[in-house]
Amino acid sequence: MIWTLIQREILTNLMTFRFFVTVIACMSLVIAGTVVLTDNYERRLASYNADFQTHQERTFIAKTYSSFRAEIDRAPNPLSLFNQGLDKRAKNSIRIRIGKVPFLWDNVYQHQSTGFNNPFRHLLADIDLVSIFQILLSLLALVFAYDAIAGDRENGTLRLILANPVGRGVVILGKYIGAIVCLTLPLLISFLFALLLQLQSSAIQYTIDDFLRIGGILLTTIVYISTFYLIGLFISSMIHRTATSLIVSMFIWVTLTLLYPNVSLFLVNRLIDTEEKIEQVNREIEQVSDRYYRDEQKLRDPFESPSLLKGSIGSGGSRGYLHLSKNLTYIPNESEPNIPTVKAYFQDLTSLHIRAAETIWRIRKNAFAETYIRKSRIARNALRFSPAGLYHLSTEAWAGTDIARMEHFFETGRQYRQRVLDYFHDKKAFSSRQWFASDKGAVRWDDAPRFTYHPPDVFEDANSRALPDLFLLSLLNLVLFITTFMIFSRQEV
Predict the structure, then answer these.
(1) What is the pTM of this model?
(2) E-strand stretches of 164-293
(3) How many CB atoms lie within 10 A of CB 159?
(4) DSSP assignment, residue 340?
(5) Residue 410, CA atoms < 13 Å, CB-side half-sphere
(6) How does pLDDT run across 242-283, given as a tens digit for each residue?
(7) Which of 136, 130, 43, 53 has the alpha carbon at shortest distance from 88?
(8) Which residues have CB under 8 Å from 304's CB, separation 6+?
(9) Biggest CA pair distance of the chain
(10) Any bridge partners for residue 437, and if so which?
(11) Segment 123-155, tens digit of pLDDT
């Protein structure tokens, strides 16, 4: 009997005008969005390739160790076409300096105009494929569901169905399966067209890991559609008139998909004040800087009057906070006796640089956890009270465009900086002549560490972030289905 009910629901929905609108709207918006997003990704990738080539050429051309400059790059994520998250707003490159630990907070300050200084305010603002599914399919799911029970009750069909030897649970299950099949069809068609269009671009080359992530996004989307259909079915079982059911369904849709996610993020940002903590951190950093400058003043600069070391300074000779770069291309013979003193000076100075940088990093790390990370955690927990929020968080984790992926890139940058420091220690670079002079030959970087970035695989992201939110969304489906069945089973037809 259940298969008969399922077939009836499928045929009834397929023959309606709303199914035709669903297919046309979903395909047109997804295809148009894919074309625009793919073009945007190609531009970003071309910019990344140009920057990567430039940075590779500049990294290992320094004549001295102190002139070492490295800039590491993060390629744009092709899965940002599905969920952009923070991928576009986050910085794609990091400067590696001996006297500074790379940190996401710096990136926050550098991108105030784009909104990345507050990455949670625009969490749901960008249009991508997930945004289209989130808004369009949830609306269409409610349109399919608002008269599923109320409509049959009004026209008397429900009484005829229950006159047969069929349980009410079977009726609910048959309507649910039939509607989900009809809603999944336009999703699968548009999803397939989007993938085909993306793969037509030579810039997009998905790996097996990427396809698994895309599968996770598709699965989450189906569960999300199911959630809104069950919300509509729940409303339809409680309200006897289809017009009232439609009005209530539209109100719920606006609240859950548009109002609540944005209002909750707005309130989190307004109610959780981080300015005082940031000011305190800035004061602590200033104190560390002052101590550094006082310690630096105790060291005799060999390039100040009276100068211990004379010679010609080539390109790259500059001095600044936590940074000292010299490249003497010529040192006269009369200055040779002072070379050991100069070596000792730079060894002490670089030690001050590194200690100050590590101290500042620890201050910033703790402050970041107490401000932005805390705010992120609260904002995400607030979003989890909405199916749209759960859907966004899960697909963002599947795509690898959330703040955790951005921080992973910076963590990899910090590890690379440490590898460079270990390399300098092994080479005894801080106390060598080649730290400040290339008159006896430039530094050879053949065995210097190179940077490579490998993002976490799909299983790591899924287990830590994507699956928990998908589980909550699935659990909400189960609760809605059971609640709808309990209400429907107690009602008179």
Answers:
(1) 0.87
(2) none
(3) 11
(4) H
(5) 18
(6) 999 999 999 999 999 989 988 988 888 888 878 888 888 889
(7) 43
(8) none
(9) 111
(10) 328
(11) 434 688 999 999 999 999 999 999 888 888 888
